[in-house]
Amino acid sequence: MQLKLMSMACAAAFAFGAGAAGAQTVVKLGHVGPLTGNIAQLGKDNEAGARMAIDELNAKKLKIGGQEVKFELLSEDDAADPKQGTAAAQKLVDAKVNGVIGHLNSGTTIPASRIYSEAGIPQISPSSTAPKYTQQGFKTAYRVVANDGQLGGALGRYAVTELKARTIAVIDDRTAYGQGVADEFAKAVKAAGGQVSGREYTNDKATDFSAILTKLKGKKPDLVFFGGMNAAAGPMLRQMKQLGMQVKYMGGDGICTGDMPQLAGDGMADGQVICAEAGGVEGEQLKVMEDFRTRFKSKFNMDVLLYAPYVYDATMTMVAAMQKADSTDPKKYLPVLAKIKYEGVTGTISFDSKGDIRNGALTLYTFKGGKREAMRVVR
After folding, report:
1. What's the whole-number mean pLDDT along residues 213-231?
2. Can you give the pLDDT at residue 198?
3. How far apart are CA 176 and CA 172, in angstroms?
4. Domain range for 188
5. Which residues contact 83 (CB under 8 A, 6 or more apart)?
């Protein structure tokens, strides 16, 4: 009996020692984006950015609150659909995640943000640009890119003052993002002395735009602006060429992707398309971003498509707040996140009182020879 008790004591001591030596706190971070549907390529780009950050963080074996932490990525598909977005948000809340990186689209981010707010879970969107997201008064909502007011405004002013367009047609896909950026663009065009000669609408699943383009062609625009995503912009450009509409074409970050030349095919002429990405690096930061792109391609065997660096930075910023607060508890690190200043691959990240990034940059791009080409960074 005594021998048995001694054996049990030794086993218990061994188990305790092994547990203590290998003690880890599992920190669950949620990511949400469209992993299926017509912009799944963008969602997967975002997811890869999150995965890269998680893997690098785990390799560092960080200690928070006196214990080594292991980060676990819980990735959900919202298919760019608001209803699926709220379902994904609730699933992450039920899983008791410590924070959320996402969503990609404004149309899914906005309804999901209420669910995270009610649960007290910090959320950093790497790509949602609708102003409403941070105007709801939620203390849990942040973003690391400039909003539509900045993006649409910059494009509208550029169209009139630099491209000298006077008669401009505007199309949007009726999503929170597409309509929002088109509204801001139209507002800036009028303020700069330009004229919106026609305003048409489609939806984010459409592929045939011949009816609205024919209608707009009759108004003889100098330029067409599209508020929407690349999956629609590519076919739209091809159909514009078929109709003989060889005019300048502008859009926001939704069309500012490296695969736009492939999506548009022979519908895109060199220098015809001008777009803006809600974010921008310049000077010495260009080398940091290039290093990230090289590491990303080496890890995933694919090029950065659009927002992977911003997802990476959003993840790293959230964890930096946990480290500074020495806690993974959302209640404890959220106040630190609100005041954080983090040097990321996309630049300095800090937030204003609403959760918007301070001094948000924009990069204007065009396409030449099948490649995206940066024109300038504006703030």
Report:
1. 96
2. 95
3. 10
4. 149-277
5. none
Residue 253 and residue 297 share a domain:
no
Tell whether 270 and 290 lie within a shared domain: no
Token couple for 254: 């939704």
Give 306's pLDDT tier (boundaries 50, 70, 90): confident
Averaged pLDDT of the chain: 92
CA–CA gap between residue 132 and residue 110 (Å, rounded): 7
In a domain, 138, yes or no: yes
Contact 140, 134 (CB under 8 A): no
| Angstrom distances, CA of residue 18 to CA of 14, 22, 65 | 6, 6, 20
In a domain, 8, yes or no: no
Which tens digits make up the pLDDT trace of 157-171?
999 999 999 999 999
Is omega for the bond preceding 31 within 30 degrees of 0, making it cis?
no
Examine the domain organization and report whether 122 and 180 are in the same domain: no
Q: Do residues 201 and 174 make contact, with C-beta atoms less than 8 angstroms apart?
A: yes
- Determine, yes or no, domain membership for 377: no
Give the span between the Cα atoms of 189 and 204, in whole angstroms. Answer: 24
Evaluated on CA atoms 154, 260, 125, 320, the torsion sign reads negative
Into how many domains does the chain fold?
A: 2
- Cα four-point dihedral sign 21, 27, 31, 35: positive
pLDDT at residue 24 above 90? no
Q: Are residues 69 and 161 in the same domain?
A: no
Same domain, 132 and 158: no
Could you write out the DSSP letters of every residue in 143-212?
ESS--HHHHHHHHHHHHHHTS---EEEEEE-SSHHHHHHHHHHHHHHHHTT-EEEEEEE--TT----HHH
Which phi-psi region, left, alpha or beta, contains residue 137 (left: φ > 0; alpha: ψ -120 to 50)?
Answer: left
Give 365's strand partners: 275, 374
